[in-house]
Design brief:
By secondary structure, the chain is α/β, with parallel strands linked by helices. It has eight helices and ten strands. It has helices at residues 5-23, 38-73, 126-135, 145-148, 156-160, 180-198, 214-222, 270-283, and strands at 103-104, 113-120, 140-143, 165-167, 204-205, 227-229, 233-235, 240-242, 254-258, 287-288. Strands 2, 3, 4, 7, 8, 9 and 10 form a seven-stranded mixed sheet that branches. The chain has a three-stranded parallel sheet with strand order 1-6-5, with helices on one face.
């Protein structure tokens, strides 16, 4: 897929800006020096200039690598997401008169951002790990023990990239068909397994099939989880399914995808499905942000 010098320069400028800000080489981060120490000031200025040049070189190299990754996967570059808000948006519960654990399908924001989530964990394609490492696309995993137990370690490199592991029950049942105690066993049991395997207790829960009731909310709270996360769009093979009649993405939408392989995707690989999803997002003028930064 063709690129263009403008897109390449945009990525390089963004990478350089991030590195310079991190290193403190912006005009708002200048150091103070005694007025009677010109040599010290000159030396510091020279040192800062050299460091700034070094940071620029690193940013250029990173931008080149990112540009190559986009070309490799056949995707146009996504814009960098905005900085997350200092105060995280508070989502309201969508059901239940008594409040309780919020149930959310999107995040209140005016920014043209969406959030990616991948469910279950049945497909364990090593190329997907490579893709996410190279493209640096944030996403959230909602994992089911029955789907991941054959290879728990597959998900650790993804977690190491900063993509969090969240709760999707032990065996993927329709929770509305279960008693309150059975729901609690499914949710709390998976909570403990994920904490033991990955070192961090999940904060978020997704009910299989999106089916839940008030017993679910009670169980989620008792298991130490904070929010029930649903979705607005689901990615199929080449196209998205939309809940809204206008069949468009909206700011703050949560998108559902799955760890699925060619047998479930009619010969399409997980990386091809993901590339198709990213194209839909980019074509509608959106970019991808990290869900946990807003919750």
């Amino acid at each position: 897929m063709g690129w263009g010098a403008v897109e390449h320069r945009r990525i390089k400028r963004a990478a350089l800006a991030c590195l310079l800000l991190t290193a403190g080489f912006t005009t708002s981060c200048t150091a103070e020096h005694p007025k009677d120490s010109p040599d010290s000031s000159a030396s510091t200025s020279a040192s800062a200039s050299a460091s700034s040049t070094e940071a620029g070189a690193r940013a250029g190299a990173q931008a080149d690598a990112l540009a190559a990754a986009y070309r490799k996967w056949g995707i146009k570059p996504l814009a960098a997401p905005p900085a997350p808000p200092a105060t995280k948006p508070v989502a309201q519960a969508t059901a239940g008169a008594g409040g309780g654990v919020p149930v959310i399908s999107d995040i209140p924001t005016k920014e043209k951002i969406v959030f990616l989530t991948f469910d279950d964990g049945a497909e364990k394609d090593p190329k997907f790990v490579t893709m996410m490492r190279e493209l640096k696309i944030p996403f959230t995993m909602f994992l089911t023990d029955a789907a991941i137990r054959a290879d728990y370690d597959y998900f650790k490199p993804l977690q190491g990239l900063g993509d969090s592991i969240q709760n999707h029950t032990l065996t993927h049942p329709n929770l509305r068909t279960l008693s309150a105690s059975a729901q609690k066993q499914e949710i709390c049991g998976q909570q403990q397994k994920l904490k033991d395997r990955y070192g961090t207790a999940p904060r978020l829960f997704r009910p299989p099939y999106g089916n839940w009731n008030e017993d679910t909310r009670t169980a989620v709270a008792s298991c130490g989880l904070e929010k029930i996360v649903l979705w607005r769009e689901s990615m199929q093979i080449k196209n998205m399914q939309y809940q809204r009649g206008d069949r468009k993405l909206h700011p703050g939408d949560i998108i559902l995808a799955h760890f699925r392989g060619p047998s479930e995707l009619k010969g399409t690989t997980m990386t091809e499905m993901t590339a198709n999803m990213l194209r839909h997002i980019q074509d509608q003028g959106f970019t991808v942000a990290r869900l946990e930064d807003y919750l």
